[in-house]
Amino acid sequence: MTTDFAALRRRFPVLERKTYLNSGSYCALADTVREAFSAYLDERLAVGANWEVWVAKNQAVRALLARVLGVTPGEIAITTSASAGINALASACDFSGPRNKVLVSDLEFPTSAQIWHAQERRGAQVVHVPCAADGGIPLEHFERLIDERTQLVALTHLCYRNGMRPDIPGIVRLAHARGARVMLDSYQAIGALRVDARELDVDFVVGGMLKYLLGTAGIGFLYVRKDCIADLVPTHSGWFAQQDIAAMDITANRPASSARRFEAGTPPVVNCYAAEAGLKIILEAGLEQIEARVRDVTARCLQRLAEIGWPAVTPLEDARRGPMVAVPSRDAAGLFAQLMEQDIVTSFRDGNIRATCHFYNTDEDIDRFVGALAGHRARFAPAR
Ligand SMILES: Cc1ncc(COP(=O)(O)O)c(C=O)c1O
């Protein structure tokens, strides 16, 4: 399958006005996603409450996401954020026995560390896996810490600060060999990289729809591998987590037999409209094609940065990076503001400007970004 990326790019009007390198914060808005929001509002005016359609939308998102992850819809919980998914999972973990250790990589987005630390009151022992000098985490650091007391490894797919991708297959192999499960936080990767949960062999995947999946804020997901569902009963629950939502039974908690048991209350209806439209674009473009495109665009960015003598902190090797190129600066906030004035939209974290690329970015976007950096070198390049 060949993908017409130029035609797809035309469906994102903001790209006519901005050099948009900020999909790792929030994607560009597509025509059909905007129309999906309008369709919801039109229905509210015409019909009022349209529950049958809304439930179907929720199911459509579940089914499309299952296709993206290469799993079954019964293994997907649709949540209101990535944090809600992690919380539901954490609430189902039992820390009362000897296997009470949770390893948290130092590449994690804060929420994925904070929620596990919140479990310390319930008996969890949270241990951090430290970074090496280059900002990544070598496999040996995990090897040293994963042991027979480890219940879970919380692992980011791609670090939100520096764009580093850990050795996921290696870490999963180590964890499983020692009886631990792995929760992959794929928020900074899914939609820009192919994320096949079975191939990766991870037990859980969390993420959301506002970045590379092209949807909106206020909707996330948790994938739970089928054979893990039955023994995990969340105490973070609600009526939409029940086996029979319509039962309205107040005498007991009867969790769904599927991953829906990790949901809680009324689904984020309007967000489902947007998420459905975004997921359809991703599947239409093709995940392999998107990954190859993102790889080319980020490789060009790294090469151009090397040419102007302002190297990124993100690794050059394809397997160690994803859609983000993180560029150090002596004043990242100041540089971000300068770039904004030039209609170049980026973001900054931890002293780095983050250029986060999607399939709709072009070589010209990259050249504009790096050209602008070259102009700002004297004031903003890192001190040597
Ligand atoms: C890697 C990663 N994980 C988790 C989150 C938090 O997601 P949420 O706000 O949906 O809980 C983010 C948000 O940017 C993220 O980048």
Rg on CA atoms, Å: 21 Å
Give a quick account of the main beta sheet: strands, pairing sense, barrel closure.
7 strands, mixed
Taking the alpha carbons of the first and last residues, their distance comes to 46 Å
Strand content: 5-15%
Give the integer mean of the pLDDT values: 97
Q: What is the oligomeric state here?
A: single chain
Order of helices and strands: HEHHEHEHEHEHEHEEHHHEHEEEHH
Task: Tell how many strands the DSSP assignment holds.
Answer: 12
Q: Which bin fits the share of residues in helices?
A: 25-40%
Ligand names: pyridoxal-5'-phosphate
* Backbone shape: globular
Low-pLDDT runs: none
Quick recap:
This protein is α/β, with parallel strands linked by helices and 384 residues long. 39% of the residues lie in helices and 14% in strands. It has helices at residues 5-9, 31-46, 51-69, 82-92, 110-118, 139-145, 168-177, 197-200, 226-229, 269-285, 287-307, 332-341, 363-375, 377-380; strands spanning 19-20, 76-79, 101-105, 125-129, 150-156, 181-185, 204-208, 220-224, 324-328, 344-345, 347-349, 352-356.
